[in-house]
């Protein structure tokens, strides 16, 4: 049984990957920005297979919240085998020329800092667990 943390996994590609993991019998921690989205996704995964899914709301731009994902997975599953940085924001209702500054900043914060925080936390955690 493999243990996964999949960020941004309450919908889309991240959710499909989480569902596949549960179907295979793996353990997966899903995350999204809101507890409501996490709870809805967990309800859909409840009978998806023999695996186990848990969830946590987290904003990937906040390092402490990313660290909480690792800590929760390690506490619940033991060693974390796979970390997937899937969380991202795309404001595709505007062309890049017309995109409001606040939307551009949200995309950059989430897509850049979220990925960096995820990589740092996962790498540090894996080194600490001897992976």
Give the gist of this structure.
This protein is an alpha/beta fold and 131 residues long. It has four helices and four strands.
List key phrases describing it.
4 helices, alpha/beta, 131 residues, single chain, 4-stranded parallel beta sheet
Sequence-ordered SSE layout with sheet pairings:
Elements: E1 3-6, H1 12-24, E2 27-32, H2 35-45, E3 52-57, H3 63-77, E4 82-84, H4 101-128
Parallel strand pairs: 1-2, 1-4, 2-3
Helix pairs in contact: 3-4
Termini separation (Å)? 16 Å
Question: Roughly how many Å is the radius of gyration?
Answer: 15 Å
Q: How much of the residues is beta strand, in percent?
A: 5-15%
Shape: globular
Report the uncertain regions. none
How many helices? The count is: 4
What's the main sheet like? 4 strands, parallel
The secondary-structure element order is EHEHEHEH
Walk me through this protein's architecture.
This protein is α/β, with parallel strands linked by helices and 131 residues long. The protein has four helices and four strands; from the N terminus they run βαβαβαβα. The chain has helices at 12-24, 35-45, 63-77, 101-128; strands spanning 3-6, 27-32, 52-57, 82-84. A four-stranded parallel β-sheet has the order 3-2-1-4, sandwiched between helices. α2 (35-45) links the parallel β2 (27-32) and β3 (52-57). α3 packs parallel to α4. The radius of gyration is 15 Å and the shape is globular. It starts with a strand and ends with a helix. The mean pLDDT is 95.
């Amino acid at each position: 049984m493999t243990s996964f943390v999949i960020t941004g996994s309450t919908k889309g590609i991240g959710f499909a990957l989480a569902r596949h993991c549960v179907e295979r019998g793996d353990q997966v921690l899903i995350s999204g920005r809101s507890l409501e989205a996490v709870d809805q996704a967990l309800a859909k995964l409840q009978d998806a297979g023999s695996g186990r899914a848990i969830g946590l709301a987290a904003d990937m731009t906040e390092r402490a919240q990313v660290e909480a994902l690792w800590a929760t997975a390690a506490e619940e599953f033991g060693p974390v085998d796979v970390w997937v940085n899937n969380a991202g924001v795309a404001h595709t209702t505007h062309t890049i020329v017309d995109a409001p500054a606040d939307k551009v900043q949200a995309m950059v914060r989430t897509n850049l800092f979220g990925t960096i925080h995820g990589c740092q936390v996962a790498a540090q955690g894996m080194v600490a667990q001897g992976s």
